[in-house]
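Box S1 | Example of a co-folding query
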Amino acid sequence: MKRLKYYLLSVVFVSTAVFTQAQEKEQVKTGHTNNNKFKQLYDEFATPNMYRSASGAPGSAYYQQQADYKMDIVLDDKNARIAGYETITYTNNSPDQLKYLWVQLDQNVRAKDSKSPLIEESNVRPVMRPNEFASKFMKKPLERGFNIQKVVDVNDKPLTYMINRTMMRVELPEPLETGDKFTFSIRWWYNINDHVKENGRSGYEYFPKDGNRAYVIAQFFPRMAVYNDVEGWQNSQFWGRDEFALPFGDYEVDITVPADHIMEATGKLLNRKEVFSKEMMKRYEAAKKSYKKPVFIVTQEEAEAAEKGFSKQTKTWKFKAENVRDFGFATSRKFIWDMMAVKIGDKDVMAVSLYPKEGNPLWEEWSTKAVASTLETYSRMTFNYPYHKAVSVHAKQQGMEYPMICWNYGRPKEDGTYNDRVKYGMMGVIIHEVGHNFFPMIVNSDERQWTWMDEGLNTFLEYLAQQDFGEKYPEALSPQHDKFPSDRGPAHLIVPYMRGNQDYMAPIMTKGLNTYQFGNNAYGKPATALNILREAIMGHELFDYAFKEYANRWMFKHPTPEDFFRTMEDASAVDLDWFWRGWFYTTDWVDIGIKDVKKFYVSSKPNKFIKDLVNERGGNINDLPPLVYLVEEGGEDFSEDMKTKSLLENSTPLKEYIMDNFTPAEQRQIKTPKFFYNITFEKPGGLVMPIIVEYTYADGTKKTEKYPAQIWRKNDKEVSKVIASEKEIISIVIDPNLLTADIDTSNNNWPRKEQQSEFEKFKSKVKQ
Ligand SMILES: [Zn+2]
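Box S1 (continued) | Returned holo structure for zinc ion
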């Protein structure tokens, strides 16, 4: 008899185990084992080496090239023309011998023979405005692009060079060995574009009312390309949208402009006393001590007076910048100028704004404060801002960044009024572009190749900086807002993109030039992915430490995507390969739902499962050992009185077991759950994510549980969880705070919400 008991018992457990195994096998068979979403990223990643270590840090043999510039620049305001003579000293820190150098000629993107317009598709549009029509079909190409007058060595001896569109190859008289420097000079000029009419990231805006131009000048000099261990020469052509890859260097730049111009530029102003009036010097000293609000260096009244001058005299402004990857400047007699100090660590940094009267009253109110606030947030999240100033320049339709200086849009109407869109747009773009000082100006990633490495990381921090700004300056917000209305960052804001047409989507790991929906792909999605990582997966402490580690490891260096991915894992002990793979290498989306919830009670009476088994094996039900039976509410083994009894009242074998095996003290400590829920979660979405579940109990209390993403590792479609609870669960919600960008929340509730099923009915009606 004993033997039979044991036999039956083993049958019970063996058949349960076989049942589970069969289920697993079925899943493996139907799943694509080669596309396992938890497979490590070895295939996609470059192999770590002496230059880039497996930890994501710069390797022991990491190197980077250096390009130092001395430039003399002359602006011809009358003809909107700029000319320069530059001397580049290039240091080869690579282990390779170089036969030639590549120099970027970005202005050639606007040259008559530019191929950029040729790669844009065009179609006849049945209706056009006259100005559109004229500019499209009747305009002669303008004389734009670089005029390279000479390329010479230190002895003024011509060097052989070849121009391939936006790239110039300069032949070296002798190969440049490791550690050696080569100095050469280029004389050039070009006609400056009207950036409002002709587009472009730099140029001038013409103001017909007063006949002045405001210049925001960048990509204006032949710039060294990057040479490194991952690309060799980064000489991928500039088509217009894709941004830049530039080496660090020191700059000495003299810029000659009309004497009545006001200027800001990358770098320290060396001859302030020569270009400032005594009054301006006094104001400047005051601004250095003003931490609460900006001090005017040039007032609106003074700027308006200057607009009428058109001086024939010139002035030379001298700047020096160390360890920057680029140089930009803004100049006009229209500029109003204000600045204030902001404490970053133990240093004072100047937050600065430059804007024509057309930017007011918005700009004098908020630009400089937005600059200062941005430096504080970004410094907290990365490293202390290392430069001495950050400048925001108002330029129509521009949003573009350079070291220490950036161009920003946001212009009130002529009567000085503006709506929320203009106001928040202006604040948002200033925070974004000032933020670019950190990524990619200091953490110097390759923008031409990886747009997301600067735009995504920067948009993520921009969101945090916008929220900080709104908290610091609640008076900047409109009455209906209690926080800054950021349009990117929070997970739910990316949902419309993620559930969009897959034909117009590309993985984040796509070169910016070649992607669809540029803004969502390179800004919104990576920024949101990082926010999700911080809010829903890693938590603030682990994320912030690792993100800061990445910023500090790669400050003033050139990181690659792997360096970022690896560092985030290396510094946190969170395995994130599945996350990078899903969010960065695919266009999958998140959709997790509750498929089914079954409620069980325990019982002493043999249930149908065991009865069937015993019948099948030819045993006697009375020979069974004491067992705990689980019966589903409403099922054939269920009886209403189970609801009213406690756990131990419902199961005599369990009660006896507890009495026999636990001391009275232990018995008082044990849990006695009464309700048993078998919850099946489904995952129609391709992305694996943690399941964040909020359980609400009959007494009104709630409990949130997070099942790590690895719960999906063996079954990508559905998983189950048993919840043993002392209290009855009355509702279950997945992702209650919308932290995961779940694209369909209609399956996130149990019981299903009535209005959602109504909506589903409506949807299916519409489909028919
Ligand atoms: Zn940007």
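The longest helix spans residues 2-30. Confidence is low (pLDDT under 50) at residues 17-22.
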